[in-house]
Amino acid sequence: MASDTITGEAARGRLWDRFSIKTKRVIWAWTFLALPILFYAGIRFYPTLQAFWLSLTDWDLLRPANFIGLANYQKMFADPVFWKVFQNTFLYLLIGTPLSLVLSFVIAFYLDRVRFMHGFIRALYFLPFLTTAAAMGWVWRWFYQPVPIGVINGMLGSLGIAQQPFLRSTVQALPTVLAPAIWAGLGFQIIIFMAGLRAIPSTFYEAARIDGLGEWAILRKITIPLLKPTTVFLVVFSSIGFLRIFDQVYNMTTNDPGGPLNATKPLVLMIYQTAFSSYQMGYAAAQTVVLFSILLAVSLLQLWIMREKK
């Protein structure tokens, strides 16, 4: 028996010795990565697959899930409220993403040139990103109140401008909610843009000035093209954030979440209400699958549009 054990170990040793150094490194790498990959698959992939399955059932937490096929999707696509919410979700994306990126780039571009109290100013821009969304939502809700409570309406009144309904208007409510969401994310985007700006070698700028290029030409031909990897990251990151907007809407319209008349309701809030107010878990899962598909499609589309051209 001892000789058999020694023979087996010798055979395994000879097999391991046949591998190249590169192959051995790959084997060791996958050995160490196996446990994290299994953990990630358990907490990510399994719940995702479970959501797809639940979207085909009428589960309500009280009874076992009953398979009903595509009935949830048929109900959802025939619901006018869903299409209103779908429109709101894309309005958050189409308005919020470009506006936040332009503002953050402009601020980062000029802040990078500031030397006096640079760190303090940068910290001021970053503070909103660290503030909890619930607290920020309630403060901005207070800002939007009528006079004498609302600060913004008070400022408009001092300028001779009539009071605005803001959160009580079906037209103004969505941009009113979107404004603090953009403001809250500016700090993070500014920091990332500044990191990208400082990663550009100064020799490019020196050569451009020697060639006689002006500031606008340098910005258009050097700065913006070399910031493309940073911009791609922020576009995808920001888009996912606006498609998943929830905290600002819920806290600023807490008396009528997503109101007035569903004017501010995003898809995430609709999923929350369907699941935890109506307890229609299967229907909520179908809405989650739609949101997942939108996030995946938008991210892949942006990466394809902004990909590097060979």
How far apart, in Å, are the first and last alpha carbons? 61 Å
The overall pLDDT average reads 87
Form type: flat
Helical fraction equals over 70%
Q: What does the radius of gyration come to?
A: 27 Å
The helix tally amounts to 14
Category by helix and strand content: mainly alpha
Q: Based on DSSP secondary structure assignment, what is the total number of beta strands?
A: 0
- How would you characterize the largest beta sheet? none
Low-confidence stretches: none
- SSE pattern: HHHHHHHHHHHHHH
Q: Note the beta-strand portion.
A: under 5%
Describe the structure.
It is a single chain. The chain is mostly helical. It contains 14 helices and no strands. The protein is flat, with a radius of gyration of 27 Å. The termini are far apart.
Task: List the SSEs and their pairings.
Blueprint: H1 2-18, H2 21-54, H3 71-77, H4 80-111, H5 118-130, H6 133-143, H7 151-158, H8 173-199, H9 202-210, H10 215-226, H11 228-243, H12 247-252, H13 267-276, H14 281-305
Describe this structure in a few short sentences.
The protein is mainly α and 310 residues long. It is flat, with a radius of gyration of 27 Å. It is built from 14 helices and no strands.
